[in-house]
């Protein structure tokens, strides 16, 4: 009798476990499939150089990898991939960011401008022409990041955002001295050492937009 009773309890427990497993699998299936039929209506997108781009379903993709590996926009360079060299600098709504440190999904609905998007109708942006005229590059690997950073930096100056070397914080307008410019561009490294040409190019461009 004890053996029969024990066997009955084991069968009851086994059936209970199987029932719970079926319930769990049903709930998991329901959770992961609910709403998939409407997924196309909820796709996330980002604007890159004036074109709307669907974001990848993998939320781990960095903005840099989206540009280079998914969109084949290789003008934006991958240097250190740690936010230390500035080669990956792009503009988001006019503000400069390091795309290697940014997840693409962070910028859903935002407007991204890369080095490819600065030129218009096949004509170089004035700051691109200034870099050529002043030899603001050697190997050219850092140049896209330098140029995008310079555009964003000059926007910061125009808005009156101070740097670590800004003298008069209450003055409103900022004079872009050589020290001010070098401080603001210090996050963009040039391992070839073309800094004099870079500074001269940015200074010339800054004079034209005053």
From TrEMBL:
<dbReference type="InterPro" id="IPR012675">
    <property type="entry name" value="Beta-grasp_dom_sf"/>
</dbReference>
<dbReference type="InterPro" id="IPR036010">
    <property type="entry name" value="2Fe-2S_ferredoxin-like_sf"/>
</dbReference>
<dbReference type="GO" id="GO:0046872">
    <property type="term" value="F:metal ion binding"/>
</dbReference>
<keyword id="KW-0408">Iron</keyword>
<keyword id="KW-0001">2Fe-2S</keyword>
<keyword id="KW-0411">Iron-sulfur</keyword>
<dbReference type="GO" id="GO:0016903">
    <property type="term" value="F:oxidoreductase activity, acting on the aldehyde or oxo group of donors"/>
</dbReference>
<dbReference type="InterPro" id="IPR006058">
    <property type="entry name" value="2Fe2S_fd_BS"/>
</dbReference>
<dbReference type="Pfam" id="PF00111">
    <property type="entry name" value="Fer2"/>
</dbReference>
<keyword id="KW-0479">Metal-binding</keyword>
<dbReference type="Pfam" id="PF01799">
    <property type="entry name" value="Fer2_2"/>
</dbReference>
<dbReference type="InterPro" id="IPR052914">
    <property type="entry name" value="Aldehyde_Oxdr_Iron-Sulfur"/>
</dbReference>
<dbReference type="InterPro" id="IPR002888">
    <property type="entry name" value="2Fe-2S-bd"/>
</dbReference>
<protein>
    <submittedName>
        <fullName>Xanthine dehydrogenase YagT iron-sulfur-binding subunit</fullName>
    </submittedName>
</protein>
<keyword id="KW-0560">Oxidoreductase</keyword>
<dbReference type="InterPro" id="IPR001041">
    <property type="entry name" value="2Fe-2S_ferredoxin-type"/>
</dbReference>
<dbReference type="InterPro" id="IPR036884">
    <property type="entry name" value="2Fe-2S-bd_dom_sf"/>
</dbReference>
<feature type="domain" description="2Fe-2S ferredoxin-type">
    <location>
        <begin position="42"/>
        <end position="118"/>
    </location>
</feature>
<dbReference type="GO" id="GO:0051537">
    <property type="term" value="F:2 iron, 2 sulfur cluster binding"/>
</dbReference>
């Amino acid at each position: 009798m004890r053996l029969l009773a024990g066997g009955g309890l084991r069968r009851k427990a086994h059936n209970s476990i199987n029932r719970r497993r079926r319930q769990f699998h049903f709930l998991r299936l329901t959770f992961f499939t609910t709403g998939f039929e409407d997924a196309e209506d909820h796709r996330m997108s980002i604007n890159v150089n004036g074109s709307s781009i669907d974001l990848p379903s993998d939320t781990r993709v960095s903005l840099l990898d989206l540009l280079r590996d998914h969109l084949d926009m290789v003008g934006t360079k991958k240097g250190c991939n740690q936010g230390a060299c500035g080669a990956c600098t792009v503009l988001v709504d006019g503000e400069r960011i390091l795309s290697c440190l940014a997840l693409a999904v962070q910028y859903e609905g935002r407007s991204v401008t890369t080095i490819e998007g600065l030129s218009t109708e096949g004509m170089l942006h004035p700051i691109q022409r200034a870099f050529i005229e002043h030899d603001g590059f050697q190997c050219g690997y850092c140049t896209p990041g330098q140029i995008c950073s310079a555009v964003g930096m000059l926007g910061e100056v125009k808005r009156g955002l101070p740097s670590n070397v800004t003298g008069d914080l209450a003055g409103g307008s900022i004079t872009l001295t050589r020290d001010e410019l070098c401080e603001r561009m210090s996050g963009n490294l040039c391992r070839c050492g073309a800094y004099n040409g870079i500074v001269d190019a940015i200074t010339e461009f800054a004079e034209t937009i005053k």
